[in-house]
Design a protein that fits this description.
Blueprint (H helix, E strand, L loop, with lengths): L1 H33 L22 E14 L3 E8 L4 E7 L17 E11 L2 E10 L1
Parallel strand pairs: 3-5
Antiparallel strand pairs: 1-2, 1-4, 2-3, 4-5
Length: 133
């Protein structure tokens, strides 16, 4: 009976060791098969687009105030120049180079402004940097 128990124990040990070895091999084989190769792709050439700030144009406009819309930090004055071109000038203390230049204007008053101009659809806008006399 001792011999049979010892033989059975030896047989179980051999089976257990061989199954562990085969599972290691199959895991290694699976790992090798599932390995993904990383390929670095070159980015596609990108067309250079000028940032919005570079598309802004510095302008000076002298015109008559036709309308005023009051806002939180200032106001937007609709200005018509001598040629009849209409500008929406945003005049506010934070946008001015010198905050001491800020003043209110009235409809019908002639003013001179200098700042960054940009067009949106058919409208022309100016972010006023200098409010001239």
């Amino acid at each position: 009976m001792k011999k049979q128990t010892l033989s059975l124990f030896a047989l179980l040990a051999v089976v257990a060791l061989s199954s562990c070895d085969s599972s290691k091999k199959s895991t290694e084989e699976v790992t090798k098969e599932e390995t993904t190769e990383v390929v670095k792709e070159e980015p596609a050439p990108v067309e250079e687009v000028a940032p919005a700030e570079e598309q802004k144009i510095e302008v000076a406009v002298v015109g008559t105030v036709k309308e005023i819309n009051r806002g939180k930090d200032g106001y937007t004055a609709k200005i018509t120049d001598d040629a009849g071109k209409i500008y929406n000038a945003t005049i506010s203390i934070p946008n001015l180079k010198d905050p001491k230049q800020y003043r209110s204007v009235e409809v019908g008053q002639k003013i001179s402004v200098k700042g960054e101009s940009f067009a949106s659809d058919a409208d022309n806008y100016i972010v006023v940097r200098e409010l001239l006399k």
